Amino acid sequence: MRITLEIAAKLISSGQVVAVPTETVYGLAASASNSEAIARVFALKNRPADNPLIVHVADAAQASQIAFCEAPLFALASRFWPGPLTLVLPARLNCVSEIARAGLSTVAVRVPSHELARGLIALSGAFVAPSANVSGRPSATAPEHVESDFDADFPVLDGGDCRGGVESTVIALDTDGSWEILRSGGITREALESAFGCAPRVARESEGPRAPGMKYRHYAPTAVLVPIAHRGDFEVATHGCDAVLGFDDTPGVLQLVSLGERGNFEQNLNRLYAGLRRLDTDGYARVAVDMDFARTGLGAALGDRLEKACRK
Ligand code: TXA
Ligand code: MG
Q1: Which end of the chain is more exposed for a tag (fewer CB within 10 A), N or C?
Q2: Is 0.90 surpassed by the pTM of this model?
């Protein structure tokens, strides 16, 4: 069910859960001050209770009501707000729901730039929102994606397609006082490096999951995905596949689901989750994935999501 901003704000204020567009993906929003509503978000998504949520706030001042923001690096990082950067900071424990934090002493917080998300915060206060997909499925970048994972009656604040198409970058303060990238996303490592004056460390999965969400299977369609690193290997490597998820110039004779021009990462990310979802609606069983692209700039986020989607 498509709803207006005013209705969405009323539903959130009365403890309901509503899907909300952001500049990255749709979120499943509940009031940050209502623990029962937050618990319902976990239940709806079938999300493990140890995977904390991002609190969406209006600005840095509102962030400082739930987190300790005085680290000198906060000023540098919060320059990216409003926008797709999430900061993991020490939480003001009494000011943010324990369920949303998954019991951790930190809280993830971001300031969205999407007009409707901002409007919702202005009318009904800070909200928590994980991506509006059933856990493990590709994220939702259009109202139809939300309706397909939940149902047609689910309340969706309709903002059309999300512009960014990939989730926010998540960074956390490391023990040495520098920022560490826990999840690549809409703000690139290169942009962070130029703002911070040094390259942030990228958390390695071999070090154990730094963001609890990193240990779960993600973004995956039902089809089995077969990653192919080099275009030259396509003929042999796609044996047994019935389609390819790739780019306009991906070679081969199989049915192609294209993410657009190779190397045009903005376009590729914008089409990513719709492309992954199409593999299921078209009914493919085994799909080769063209992974032959640079992992620089937004290519890092594209590589991360496709690698996770390929993992069984
Ligand atoms: O763009 C986005 O970030 C979207 C939109 C809706 O805002 N939201 C989103 O939320 O992607 P979600 O729940 O799908 O991903 C949040 C990630 C998870 O990997 C989670 O483990 C991590 O952030 N996270 C949340 N709180 C954390 C914390 N206190 N410490 C470490 N990681 C945290
Ligand atoms: Mg998610």
Answers
A1: C
A2: yes
